[in-house]
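WARN retry 2 of 3 for item q-0093 after timeout on previous attempt; input resubmitted unchanged.
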Amino acid sequence: MSVLRDSEHEGWVLAAYPDPKTSRPLIGAGFGLDVAATEHIQRDPLNPHPFLEPSAAQLWQAAGLDTEQLQSILAQFDRELNAWKKKNFRRRIKTHALPPQLTQEQALKLLRISAIQAIHNARAYCREFDQLTASQQMALSQLVFQMGINLEEFVQFLGTLNREPSQTDSAQPEGSTETETEHWQTVQHTLIDSDWARRYTGRAITVIAMFNPRYASNPTEAERRVRAAIHPLVVPHHKKRHAASVRAGKDTAAQTAVK
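OK item q-0093 returned
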C-alpha cells in the first residue's frame, strides 16, 4: 500500500481527479469512482481461482463508506471537469489546490479493499501464486492493480509465468532444461520488452525487479539490472518550443549583425 501511494506509482490525491488518458474520475491511489462490474471469465482450465471484478460502488460499500458520499463526489467531479477541463484540473492537483473529499482513513480503506481485490485476481492469473516469494506476489498484484483486466493482453508474460510449453520451450535450445533463475529472467524480459515498461519506466523498474527471486536480499542490485535493460520511450521536443528556439537564434544573429 505504501508503494502504491508513491508518486512513481499511483500517487495519493484525496479529491476526485481525471484519469490522464480517459478523463474518468479517480481518487486516492487511483481508485476508479465510476467503474462498472465486469464479467472476467477464468479461461485457464488449470487455475481453479475465479476473477472478481465488482463495480466501484460495490468496492466503496465493501470499504465501509457511504454511498451518498460517492454520488456527491461524482456529481462535483462532473461539474468541475466541465468548468476546468482536464489540463486545468491537473494543474490544480500539482499545486495541491483541490480541497480533500476523503479523509486519510477513508482513502486508506479504499486502497486496502482495492489491494485485496488485486491480490485475489493475481492468484487467478498465476497458478503457482502461493509458491511465489513475497516480492513476486507483490509484483504481480501491483500489475493487476494498475492494469486490471487489461493484463489479459500480456499473453507472453502470463504464458511464461505459468510455464506454458508454448512460451517456455520456444526460448530454450532443444534438449535443455530451464533453471529457476533462467525462468524468472525470462519472465522479467517479457515485461522489459513491453510498451508498458518503456512508457512507465520508473514504475516498471520497481515492479519487474521484484520478480527476481533474490530481490529481498539486494533490491538495489535487482533494480539496477532492470534499469540497464529498459529503453524508455524518447519523447520528441515540442515543435512550438523548437520553433521558438529557432526564432530566438535568428533574432540573436540579427542583433549581432547589426552591432
